[in-house]
Each structure stands twice: as C-alpha cells, then as structure tokens.
C-alpha cells in the first residue's frame, strides 16, 4: 500500500508543473506506434500488481486516455504485436528496368566516364548533354 501511495505522489509531482497534464486526446485521432507501446508498457506495469480492470482504470488516469482506447489497444496487441518494429519490405527478384540487367559493364563504364568528364569540365550532367556527348548525330 505504501508503494502505491509513493507512486501516486511521484506522478502528481511530475504532472503538477505541466499545464496540459489532463488534456485528453481528441476523438478521431489515431494513436501512433510509440503511443501504443507506451500504453502497453504502463498497462503491463499496473497489471503486475492488480487485476486487469483496475489496471486499465489506473492506466487511463495516468495517461489521460479513455479506458475504451486502452482495451482496444490491448486487443490489438493480442492479435498482432503492437511493439514489434515495422520491417522494411524487400524486393523480390530483379526489376525489369534494372540498369544492371539492361546495360552491361562496358556501357555503364562509358556512361560513368562521360558523367565524370562533364563534372571535370564544370558542366552539369543533364540528359541533353549526355545524349549529345554519346551520340553527336542526335538533335537537341
């Protein structure tokens, strides 16, 4: 009981100076992944010492969000882990327009050499200047 009292005192001391301590999130705004992780961490903290209903009430008071939101985030976490980081998508196979498939090493080296020559001559390597440098017969 004394531990619970000391925790409440710490929370009151931390929120006493802030003017927006009891501002709730407006309806219609979604919680970000970080906010959901924070809610789950606070809920797990309270769940260790009390039942789920009391833990949700305490978490909603501490975080200034509704109990319904906490239950919804808890349900979402049970179905798919909220705390898991988003994994980057990997491309499967080679792309059709991949320059490694379209051009061989000789052509790539030639293009690279032309671009470097234009940088040395202090000319910006635009498509028009590269086409003129590669094939003089092409029109502007």
From TrEMBL:
Name by which UniProt lists this protein: Uncharacterized protein
Upper taxonomic lineage: Eukaryota, Metazoa, Ecdysozoa, Arthropoda, Hexapoda
